[in-house]
Design brief:
heterodimer, A: about 160 residues, mainly alpha, Butyryl-CoA Dehydrogenase, subunit A, domain 3, about 70% helix, B: about 450 residues, 7-stranded mixed beta sheet, 16 helices, 7 strands, about 45% helix
């Protein structure tokens, strides 16, 4: 458990952007993994199996926290409703603890959809390959590639927007 | 087709190429295309740099830590909730009526049942038959009282053997027109009556089957001695067993064929000639063979003589082997002879001998059998014809007892013995065979 806890927590934290939520997700993931230990067939790495549990939980959490009125993406004019969850991003105290760069980047990540955020975290933060990400999220590799492409373009645009370019 | 409205305007496929590059998931071809795109397009270079920068910034995000007590907290939670790994659902039990699995067993059980039934029926049948036979045997003293086929047959078999098996007895050998079923074993073995009753024949239904006439008395089997080829080293003839074997084999045949393997037929023939001359034989060498000897042309040859007895032939071979052994002992490699094969004379050998001597096959006449000696049809044909050929070889008849030998090429293509004056001379010189002499066909075969 100690072997995986910090790495998993970091990844989940970047997805949910809330320390307590991340802690809850990781804790519940470990408990679920323990309870479902008999169903672990050993055909995948344990870490991959644990990640699958944790990221599914994180995505579910982020979907719950989204406001019901999700406006359509307005490429030309941001609606002002972003970010759409009540994560620590919106907490002034937490915001102060971060460096400016981290805050800008996390704000951009928070504006991505949970699916895009997750693939970006798994790719850049965890350095996993398409195949591994596909196995964690249980989706085809082509979907991972497509999601990553959209996530990168979107993140780049968001960062450019933040920097005023 | 552009994506990222606030960024550079690039075709979608180039943007995908750029993102795949940032992901580090490019193939070689895609890598080449990317390099070309980056060289050619300023917009692509800018977009690529922006994506790389964003990726790098994500990787450099600080990693928070959970602390050492997290694991303990999880374990405490597990204990508090009394959590246990959820057992997997039990696999579905296979139906007890799995026909696929049962099919082989059903087949085997059926087969075993059939075999058992057949065995039981057979046992019951034979027990019933034995019972009937035993009952009939008891009534054998009053044969007319029981007219069943079993009883009649037992009564007939129970009669004294001589009355049943005498050839002149019409009862034992009924006319062919009225065949009667007779147990061959009973008819031929002539057992004692008590023995017949002890082992009763199978007689049930004899009246209903097509009977066969009695078989004639079969002669008992005879043990026939089979002669097998003997292959022995010539130099070993100084030892008891090879010498004895050779002498016995030589005495068995009316015509002797010896295949003697040697290094060089020409040199070997010189040794054979020397020994023959030492035994008082005059050796005639065919002109073709003389020419080959003179030129020392490697060849096989045949030595033929009918002036030696079996013992003399054996002695000749023994001396030949002894001399060769001495030569070999003196200097390794000087020995000429290897092994010899002494095989029973075969009709094909006769044909070959006739061919080598240039005698047309139609001139080989079979002599009449000796008077007073009955012809034995069981005697192998070749053992007769061997002697007949030897006797029928053309003879001059001038000198009785003249000891001569002939050397001709063996297996030489184009050799025409009928044109050979030496062979003709040999045949003319041949007189009557001395008693106990055996025609010998000694083939010297060069190895390699």
């Amino acid at each position: 458990m100690r072997r995986y806890q910090d790495r998993l927590y970091h990844a989940i934290y970047r997805v949910v952007d809330n320390a307590e939520d991340a802690l809850d997700v990781v804790q519940e993931s470990f408990l679920n993994a323990y309870q479902s230990l008999n169903s672990f067939k050993g055909d995948a790495e344990f870490f991959t199996w644990l990640y699958r549990i944790a990221f599914n939980a994180a995505i579910s959490l982020k979907r719950k926290r989204r406001p019901a009125l999700r406006l359509e993406w307005d490429q030309d004019n941001r609606t002002g409703l972003e970010p759409m969850d009540d994560s620590a991003y919106s907490s002034p105290a937490s915001q102060l603890e971060r460096t400016e760069d981290e805050a800008v980047l996390q704000a951009a990540l928070n504006r991505l959809s949970p699916e895009h955020r997750v693939v970006l975290v798994l790719k850049d933060l965890e350095g996993q390959k398409y195949e591994d990400i596909a196995e964690v999220l249980n989706v085809p590799i082509g979907t991972i590639r497509s999601r990553l492409h959209r996530a990168r373009v979107e993140l780049r645009d968001l960062l450019m927007e933040e920097s005023g370019e | 087709m552009n994506e990222g409205g606030t960024g550079v305007m690039l075709p979608a496929h180039l943007l995908e190429l750029l993102t795949a590059s940032v992901d580090g998931e490019l193939s070689a071809a895609e890598r080449r295309l990317l390099d070309k795109t980056l060289r050619d397009s300023e917009e692509a270079r800018v977009a690529h740099g922006q994506m790389l920068s964003a990726s790098r910034r994500v990787r450099q995000l600080p990693a928070p830590s959970l602390g050492d007590d997290f694991a303990a907290h999880i374990m405490q939670t597990i204990n508090d909730r009394a959590m246990m790994p959820t057992p997997l659902p039990m696999p579905r039990r296979r139906s007890t009526l799995d026909l696929q699995r049962l099919l082989p067993w059903v087949s085997m059980a059926t087969a075993a049942g059939v075999i058992l039934m057949v065995g039981l029926f057979a046992l019951a049948y034979f027990m019933q038959a034995e019972k009937q036979i035993a009952d009939a045997s008891k009534k054998a003293g009053a044969p007319e009282q029981d007219s069943s086929p079993v009883a009649r047959e037992v009564a007939r078999v129970a009669k004294p053997a001589p009355e049943r098996t005498q050839k002149s007895d019409p009862v034992a050998k009924p006319p062919v027109k009225e065949p009667e079923a007779v147990d061959v074993n009973v008819a031929t073995k002539q057992p004692e009556p008590a023995e017949v009753l002890a082992i009763p024949p199978r007689m049930l239904g004899l009246d209903n089957v097509i009977a066969t006439p009695s078989l004639p008395d079969a002669e008992p089997f005879k043990v026939v001695g089979v002669s097998l080829p003997v292959l022995l080293p010539l130099r070993d003839l100084d030892e008891a067993y090879p010498r004895k074997t050779t002498r016995n084999e030589l005495k068995k045949n009316e015509v002797v064929r010896i295949d003697l393997f040697c290094k060089d037929g020409i040199k070997a023939s010189e040794a054979v000639q020397a020994l023959l001359k030492a035994r008082g034989l005059s050796v005639t060498v065919d002109a073709t063979m003389q020419d080959r000897i003179r030129k020392k042309t490697r060849s096989d040859l045949m030595v033929y003589t009918d002036a030696l007895s079996a013992d003399e032939i054996a002695s000749l071979l023994e001396q030949l082997g002894g001399d060769d052994k001495k030569l070999e002992a003196k200097k390794s490699g000087d020995g000429q002879f290897d092994k010899f094969m002494l095989a029973p004379f075969h009709p094909s050998d006769l044909a070959e001998l006739a061919k080598l001597l240039g005698i047309p096959a139609n001139q080989v006449k079979l002599p009449k059998p000796k008077v007073g000696v009955p012809a034995d049809p069981r005697k192998p044909l070749d053992s007769i014809t061997a002697g007949q050929l030897a006797l029928n070889l053309p003879k001059g008849g001038s000198k009785v007892g003249e000891k001569i030998a002939l050397i001709v090429p063996y297996g030489l293509a184009g050799f025409q013995p009928q044109n050979s004056r030496e062979i003709k001379s040999f045949l003319e010189k041949r007189g009557e065979r001395r008693p106990n002499t055996v025609p010998m066909m000694l083939v010297l075969r060069s190895l390699n």
